[in-house]
Amino acid sequence: MKKILEVKNLNVEFSSNKNKVQALKGVSFDLFENEIISLVGESGSGKSVTALSILNLLDINAQITSGEIFLYGEDILKKSEKEFRKIRGKIISIIFQDPFSSLNPTMKIGKQILEAIKKAPSKQKVIELLKDVKIQNPELRYNQYPHQISGGQRQRVMIAIAIASKPKIIIADEITTSLDTTVQNEILNLLLEINKKHKTSIIFISHDLSLVYNFAKKIYVMNLGKIVEKGICKNVIKSPKHPYTKMLIDSIFTIENDKQPKNFKIDDFDLVNSFLHENNFEQAEK
Questions:
Q1: Which of 21, 25, 176, 222 is most exposed, with minimal Cβ within 10 Å?
Q2: How far apart are CA 125 and CA 119, in angstroms?
Q3: Is residue 206 classed as helix, strand or coil in its secondary structure?
């Protein structure tokens, strides 16, 4: 597989008055075509800062002090803000945790998706996108406002916006956190379908190892701004090496015969098993 994204020794610093805090400390990882990887860790571990760094969306008090981010072999950290606008939404899209705060409450859903379509936008394309993300009655939803639909539907709208320009990479930042278990599983299945149908690579950010277990190919465990463990997802979860990883696993998994995730169900097991088989999960990490 072709490598499309490479983060190398990324360091990020936050400044507040005279104080400075290093948020990322030498973070490095790769993303290949048609691959799903996951950044996992507690709140404050550096997962979201990593995502925002990739898209040059850090707060004004944050600064990338060193490191490189290569997109198709080109260091995008050297690009201007104008050049970054050609990357965001077109090559790399991000879906944030809270869709209600991400969507414009005064604008109808259809219009918000319409604005995300870069080439030949039309109502029919919006309807097709709504169908792609499994929103029922898309014609009705087109003319509704965000407050008129459920949290799960709002997250699907955000996914529709994210895939509107057929990006090569989607960053999903804690997108299932506020959803109940059933809706979480539906969203994961939807991402798997997008990955399979459009060959879109996905960086899935989560604090929940039970969601990642049957979803991501590779896992990068983050703690205090560092990647403390990495590898094939199932291998890391079955045989963790770092004490922090073990702590995360012990807080979520039960040990019965083999480690299995608590309360994790995917409606379409055939889809998941097919995905795992096609990506050969048992191979050693690249």
A1: 21
A2: 10
A3: strand
Structure tokens at 272: 């998941």
Q: Give the tokens for residue 101.
A: 């705060």
Q: What is the pLDDT of residues 87-131, one digit of tens each?
A: 998 999 999 988 888 899 999 999 999 999 988 899 999 999 999
Tell me the pTM: 0.86
CA-based end-to-end distance of the chain:
10
What letters, b where the CB count within 10 A reaches 16 and e where it falls short, cover 132-165? bbbbeebeebbeeebeebeebbbbbbbbbbbbbe
- pLDDT classification of 253: cutoffs 50, 70, 90: low
pLDDT tens digits, 178-204: 788 888 999 999 999 999 999 999 999
Amino acid at site 120: A
What is d(CA 229, CA 239) in angstroms, rounded to the nearest whole number? Answer: 11
Tokens 């990883």 identify what position?
A: 245
